Amino acid sequence: MIRTSLRRGLRKRCPHCGKGPLFSGWSHFERCSVCGLVYAPNPGDTWAFTVFGDRLPIGAMIVVIYFGVVQSHRALGLTMLGVLAVVLVWTAPNRWGVGIALHYLSRVFWPDPADRIPPVPTIDVDT
Ligand SMILES: [Zn+2]
């Protein structure tokens, strides 16, 4: 269930039903168009998951490359930073989808009565 949700997030699909898209172009939907799940009912929660699952590891990578490689091999280090930047921009929607999936899992495991998660549609659910 955890791996399924994360995989759906990585594929930019709703972590709940796996059917609805998270994005239209570069902007994301408020809720799933298939099952009605609200992706980020409390923006502050998603922000925390984004920081811990996304920004901290990236920051660590940049620090490691900068202090570990740029200091000794300048051209190589700067190339690695450039490649990293391209990869980060390229995968931004996927990483954001994983953040939504992580947040969704926390809502499933620690339910909030005020935050209703819709029933999963029974139509041929793609796992
Ligand atoms: Zn959905």
The biggest sheet amounts to: 2 strands, antiparallel
Helix content: 55-70%
> What topology, given as strand order, has the largest sheet?
1-2
Low-confidence stretches: none
Please give the number of β-strands: 2
Distance between the termini: 9 Å
* Integer-rounded radius of gyration: 17 Å
* Average pLDDT score: 87
Strand content: under 5%
Specify the structural class: mainly alpha
Walkthrough of the structure:
This protein has 127 residues and is mostly helical. Helices cover 57% and strands 3% of the residues. The chain has four helices and two strands; from the N terminus they run αββααα. It has helices at residues 2-10, 43-70, 74-90, 92-109, and strands spanning 23-24, 27-28. It has a two-stranded antiparallel ribbon. A hairpin with a 2-residue loop joins strand 1 (23-24) and strand 2 (27-28). Helix 2 (43-70) packs antiparallel against helix 3 and helix 2 crosses helix 4. The longest helix has 28 residues, at 43-70. It is elongated. The mean pLDDT is 87. The structure holds zinc ion. Zinc ion binds next to loops. The site of zinc ion has 9 residues, from loops.
Present the secondary structure layout:
Blueprint: H1 2-10, E1 23-24, E2 27-28, H2 43-70, H3 74-90, H4 92-109
Antiparallel strand pairs: 1-2
Residues 14, 16-17, 19-20, 32, 34-35, 37 line the site of zinc ion.
